[in-house]
Amino acid sequence: MPSPRPTPISPLLCPLSASCLEATTLVGRAASSASMSSLTCAKLMAWTIVAILLQILGISLFVFGFFPVKPALSGASGPESFRSPMCHSVEERDERNLPPQQLRSLYQDTSGIPPSFDQLILMVVDGLPAEFVLGKDDQPPTKAMMEAMPYTQSLLSNGMAVGYHAKAAPPTVTMPRLKAMVSGAIGGFLDVAFNFNTQALLDDNILGQFYDIGWEMVMHGDETWLKLFPGLFTRYDGVSSFYVKDTVEVDYNVSRHLETELNADNWNLLILHYLGLDHVGHIGGRSSNLMIPKLKEMDEIVKMIHMNKMLPEHNPHRQTLLVVVSDHGMTENGNHGGSSYEETDSLALFIGLRSKILTYASATQNAASQVDMASTLALLFGVPIPKNNVGVLMPEVFGSLTDDQWLRALELNSWQLLRLLQAQLPGLSQQSSPCNGSSYEQSSEISECVGQVEQKFCHFFSKAAVLHSSWKSKKGQTVRSINGDDFRNAVKAYDEFLRIASEWLSRRATDKPLNLLASGVATMFGSSMILLRLLFLLCKQVYFAEKQCLPNVNKCSYKWDLDESFVLGAILIVVLSMGSSSMVEEEQYVWHFVTSTLYLIFLRKAIQSVLAGPAPFLLNVFNGQNCSNYSRASSVILVLICGRILRGWHQGGVNWTHLPDISKWLEQAGSHSIKFVQIASALAIISLWSFLLYSLRLKRGFILVVQTMFLISGLLVMLHIMQCQDHMFAISGYNATSIAQIVYASLGATVIITAVASPWVMYDSMSKTQSSGKPCLVTYLSIDNQIGSTLFELRYSSYLIGWAYTASWCLLQLLLQQPINAVPILLIFVQILSSLVYFSAAGIQHKLWVEVAALYFLGMAGHFGLGNSNTLATIDVAAAFIGLSSHSTLFAGILMFLITLASPLLLLLSMVMYISMKDLKYLFVSQDEDMGRLLLSTIAFPSLVPLSLNSIMLTTFTVILLLMRNHLFVWSVFSPKYLYVCAITASVYAGVIVVAATGIYVCLIFAFLKRNSNASIRNPR
Amino acid sequence: MSPAKTGKAKIARNGEVVVSFKDAFLVHMVCGLGLAVAFWFAHNVYAVNLVSDPAQTLNLIWVIECPIVVILYSLFRWNPDQCSFLKAAMRGLLGLPAGAILNTFGAVVLGAPVGSQYMKRTVNWSILMSLFTVVPAASVFGTSWKDWHRLFAYSKPTGVLDYMICIPAHGAAIGAWFGAWPMPLDWERPWQEWPICVTYGAVAGYLAGMVVSLGFTVIYGGRQQHVKGD
């Protein structure tokens, strides 16, 4: 057996004595003052702040570029939409509140266009590409398709129907597309995020307009409609699109109502939403065997409706319009969500129009936009165009209108778009002239608009308005031929205005300003480069200092330890896995896996030193070396076991939430067992914390005060837990609210008093009892009391402050989190404690940044262990109102942030304790206790490492989001995840600021006290 | 089978057996073939595979692979003068459950499901992993902690025998680790179940480890033994 060669732990085999340390610190000082020019404390801080500011700038640039805040107008259009936007109307305030019948007649009087129909049947065929019905590129559809829908094709060729290729905007998924169809607006993502607890469509839309004029509405089909319009339908039968495998039942459940509904004449709007065709596509793609039968089925339904309702002799009094639309198309494989032609090519087919379409080509080769549906349907049925509509009228549908009416319709559309433009472009002048009739000479004066875009719109609009009014004035006077020319010119002018206005408005909603996004990403990239560079310099400095201290080892170049390379690899893996939507959905597995593996590597390291026997370790100075080695291994095992329980507590994620987990099991066992577990874990947390404080055997008076305050808060939290019988009750109840408020106050007081007072008190105590008892956890770190007693005091006080932070945080979370989460809090806390024990015993076996990274990883794993996921659904909104007596969005938002990010923040706060556990001072500190170096050695790593790790995550996920912008799940998976990433970034900022502020404060006070005492010693002489 | 042929291990002065490249090659090949035979046997005789019945397949594989590994590595036992073949084989068999416990701990800590329906799979999987990782070392080194420490805590194999034990074991563990990555994906494939893809990863890693170990033997084999002689 050969003798063991130099191994990775050999840096530790440095026989350490006080003299060595003394000498090496001197050497280190000399060396570091040479290399220190690369990184001083002030420089580090300045650069870090610059990097943080840059990052914030980058995030905001990106967010505003990627999630354009659509300036939606609130409220709904009323009678004012039939008046010119160029004048301030006087008396319209109360008109919208008229009873439905009066409102309907008011609309009829003022609109100038008689409603063409009384009844509307909106038949939505989910996922039907327009190509199937209308063909592509001026070609009729394939023969198979023609034969699959014989009745529809005959309607088209007989001129009784007109079809459109209605281009849908991405994301081509059902809900946003339905919203676009009924409101005429293209929504942004942030308005989904901002009202995540309600899916109801709050913007102005044609269904709301129909409701206002007293329509009876019926819906059969996809239950998305019910979510969008709760309470709007008088009769409904919602089917779920959850079972994609089913292509028959979903449609049967709609069609079975058809006969009764067609016979019953008590509705104005009938919505039929067929999901089967989309399901066929998902199973087998466009050319699935089931596609032709499904199309035939749809054709049969069209035939049935047409036969029953629209054949003219049926009912001359009630005119019915059948509109067959699809919400989106599908790719060759049957998927949708993206922005390819196949997916955006959706259908809009109007059947039962009064005018006859002349040729098959003119019936099929029309292009429109999906949002045009809203304005077209609104004017067909005589209601105002929804406020946020960006669509324009589909001209072929209005073939039956007279010239006068058609111009009026175009005018109404233009007015509505102009109003929307005015809301977005303040430069468009709002002339406040009285509107008497149609004095269009006045409106030609609005060319006083400011700005280039505004002037363009003004020009086009006034041109159209002038032409319209001149046509009107000449009407009846001149001969018909000139009149015809004028009419055509006016229509052309209107068309032109509508086209540019609509284009501009819809581009505002969907276009991603690439330069904004690119500059955002570049800024973020730059800031993470700065942070990584700083971290690298810091590591290098530590490495050199270490080398100076332990000169006999590691002559060769820098050697990567397994844990270091694993952390780097893990970051890479985590970052890469975020590119897969299911990995984003199931991120809890990734973090748990990575964290556990890291701790298994730590375990291996601990075993290395257990088996290494009594080697002359750096930390061998204290007794019971082997004992501490075993305790290291066991503390790592404790972390691992706690992590596994934490992982099993909530199943989490999206796809496997139904699998059993501990929380479900406890919930089944009943609320009593939950309460019991909650109280037990609260007791455990409180007693553990008290024990930790108790073991700090100095300055008993002060400690006693802190402990009493802490115990009072703990008792109050327990009282609150007892008070709330179940968590439904927790929100209400005056008593519970006031207890919660007292808890907030007492915790805040404990933290502030401890943080402010402890440096003063500790300094005092330490100068008296220099080398008395050592606290149990701090025992591990006492290398040598001789290295400046101030450092020792400093560590004691930062230990105390860290204790106060973490203890109060745990109590706060016990109060705020759901009862089921009490045990996970305890587990995370035990993990932190054992990690700290391990790290403090490990000495310099690990690189510092690896340890801080491990704590960060624990925080992320714990974040998912508390039941969080990357969907917005898991945010606990109800708990955000605990202790709030009045509704306050700000406080509720802060509480929600604290609850959701409990674990990352807890780990960041525990960094203050970590500072006190870790003894690094010998690397930097010389006897004269330079403030800057002291700070550099205490807070540099705990604040730089989380910032750098987070900046990597943030920057790469931003890039991923940018790459995935056309992905099917960009709005459902990646964008919510991005919001979480931003929130975690904010939490890292908050935590780092607390850690840095505490460190700076403590160091400053100690420097101040030290100088004072030195002065007082010197002065008497 | 081939153990009889490879059995003539030479003994160096300090008690270690000297393993030639040919021996190493034969051991690895037989272990690999044993795995292949086990898969074939499970598939053709019992008509099960990992996807259809993971527990039984894993059971079959380890039952077939176990004697091969124990016998082969016991032939290369440390200090053959003081330690009989039977004793080495017994050590290997004892190492089997002990290694299984270690592997179960690792798997569960890394997130393997615990529950009665997964119990059989986990047990069989960890016994197979134990065959890949712990049993060869147990057969060869017994309770010599120094060697275990060298091989598994520091991963510092010195010599052909160390390569033969250490590299495939690490390969199996690393392969199993990577094999777990597809599990959370929503591909809805049957092989994403625990422990199917992990087993695939482990077997792939084990085989790759064998190849690497042979490569090391070729590159460093002669020199290392020379150094050790001093």
Describe the structure.
The complex is a heterodimer of chains A (1021) and B (230). Chain A has 39 helices and eight strands. With 1021 residues, chain A is mostly helical. Chain A has three domains: 563 residues, no CATH class; 278 residues, 3-Layer(aba) Sandwich (Alkaline Phosphatase, subunit A); 99 residues. Chain A has an eight-stranded mixed β-sheet with strand order 4-3-5-1-6-7-2-8. In chain A, β3, α10 and β4 form a beta-alpha-beta unit. In chain A, α28 packs antiparallel against α29, α28 runs antiparallel to α32 and α34 packs across α38. The longest helix of chain A has 49 residues. The N terminus of chain A is likely disordered. Chain B is an all-alpha fold and 230 residues long. Chain B has one domain. Helix content of chain B is 71%, strand content 2%. Chain B is built from eight helices and two strands. A two-stranded antiparallel ribbon of chain B has the order 1-2. In chain B, β1 and β2 form a beta hairpin. The longest helix of chain B has 34 residues. Chain B is globular, with a radius of gyration of 18 Å. At the A-B interface, α24, α25 and α26 of A face α4 and α6 of B.
Give a quick precis of the structure.
The complex is a heterodimer of chains A (1021) and B (230). Chain A is mostly helical and 1021 residues long. Chain A has 39 helices and eight strands.
What is the alpha-carbon Rg of chain B in Å? 18 Å
Write down how many β-strands of chain A occur, each being a DSSP E stretch of 2 or more residues: 8
Secondary-structure-based class of chain A equals: mainly alpha
Number of domains of chain A: 3
| Number of E-type strands of chain B | 2
Strands of the widest sheet of chain B, in order across it, are 1-2
Identify low-pLDDT runs of chain A: 1-37, 432-447, 613-626, 727-732, 769-788, 924-928
What is the spatial order of strands in the main beta sheet of chain A? 4-3-5-1-6-7-2-8
- The best one-word shape of chain A is elongated
Provide the helix percentage of chain B.
over 70%
Strand content of chain A: under 5%
Helix content of chain A: 55-70%
User: What is the average of the pLDDT values of chain B?
Assistant: 84
Major sheet characteristics of chain B: 2 strands, antiparallel
Multimeric status of the protein:
heterodimer
Distance between the termini of chain B: 36 Å
How far apart are the first and last residues' alpha carbons of chain A, in Å? 67 Å
SSE pattern of chain B: HEEHHHHHHH
Largest sheet of chain A: 8 strands, mixed
Radius of gyration of chain A: 36 Å
